[in-house]
């Protein structure tokens, strides 16, 4: 067995799951005991969902980077830790061994300390998918600073919001990033964001694209110049800061049902244990495998399954700078062939996009190295599942359909590759330690409903009734929001915000969000956040955002917009709205469809009936339900007639 906590059979899964429910503290203490700790914990678990309060391995001290890097040196210091595949297939990539990666992390630790970063400081990282992004992440963790990575596609306004919320006084960025045939100007976006953030003391800038940028004297410095000064001073080793298991490791902002993004806080000890445990079990990682997750490190998938999970397991993790369709739709298959990738973890959006090109881009590529496929970010439809399994996995690779969220820290429900059965479109079984429960709108346990074939299906809102080590601990600076958003709806339970059904064999199938959050290409986007951006356009009186089925993205963004009577809605207004959303949030939040309307369906109390708008956007025009109680039922007919 490669890892002492790796499950290798369905019988073993059943036994581990049973133990994790009957004796959770003993179960997780045994897993945690396989990591390096400076000081053992005093109490494995202390929790209350009513308060809410969750503490794992309280009093234990560690540094996650020693477990990611230092402890691997003796046995595999020269094994590849990171393989970097650049955006341009003609450019030279980079491979860093565990020893080389640790050296670069320690160099940057000295740079951070030299620039004033201390334990507990918040550091905003805004970069493209380059090795230095992982190095910056690990350097923050080693020094005890709290990293807050912002996806490189977010706008200056979105960065300002996150900087202000975290009061992050330090920024690490790059001159620019490559993404397909586009050059993304990162430093200029940071400069715009910092116009509102006078509290930022230092900005460290990586030279990557050669884009012309401005540097503010006294605040901005170049990464390479700082590293040279550290090297000249002869400071190779940097001791890892001793952290309490419950000290914050990172803040990651995710869209909520209100306009303000939530700062999800993950802590050092529990996150470490769960990220590693879930990685080696779900993907059945074996030493020497090359693992390729196509996500961006700016999202939780990249945190847990590009950086921390793989490195904790001593894996070889591949970082890709580009996109799957540039310079052609065979880019992923080029990478799999070139690097002999064994495990490929990607999103249904990417799969559906590549499906649209047919199988020709796959031809001529040797995919025989693949052993495991994975899907993440949203429920995968059966057509995409079958295409991925047949054409990429050649029908021989287990496909893991993973369900989890930013708040969860790691995968909660999934089949284990080749160990537990896969069922197309089902996430299937919970991992050990995860105790799902389905409830109705009133919080009562959902009841099974008999089907025509004699089986039964239980449908409801997906909650979890017991904590797991990787779950988040609070929303940064606002614990009441943490309580209200996740624990107030169903007392004593953590509410995921997703709907779900369970078959009579205990397999779970996720049906999507039940709150005002959309899942677009695997990215959570709050409807209120988009509405706030649209409403800031001077021509707009109000707007409403709903999701609708999208062939590629899974969910598309449909905007119903009421304009000021003095402005004629048309192409110019449409372009202005798209530009506004792109500027305030980022291109990922742009509406796919905009319908200009004279009014929105509202109750007499003024509440917008999104249920009706959602049905119209989906094209279900004959199942809108009773509209007679609306303030103006006639507006519904107008909206139906003008559907885009």
Summarize the structure.
By secondary structure, the protein is of the alpha/beta class. The chain has 3 domains: 10-65 and 246-513, ANL, N-terminal domain (Rossmann fold), CATH 3.40.50.12780; 69-241, Rossmann fold; 519-641, ANL, C-terminal domain (GMP Synthetase, Chain A, domain 3), CATH 3.30.300. It contains 19 helices and 31 strands.
Structure description:
This protein has a seven-stranded mixed beta sheet, with helices on both faces. The protein has three domains: 10-65 and 246-513, 3-Layer(aba) Sandwich (Rossmann fold); 69-241, Rossmann fold; 519-641, GMP Synthetase, Chain A, domain 3, CATH 3.30.300. The protein has 644 residues and is an alpha/beta fold. The model has no long low-confidence stretch (mean pLDDT 93). Helix 6 links the parallel strand 6 (122-126) and strand 7 (146-149). The protein is built from 19 helices and 31 strands. The longest helix has 17 residues, at 98-114. Helix content is 30%, strand content 24%. Helix 7 (156-166) crosses helix 8.
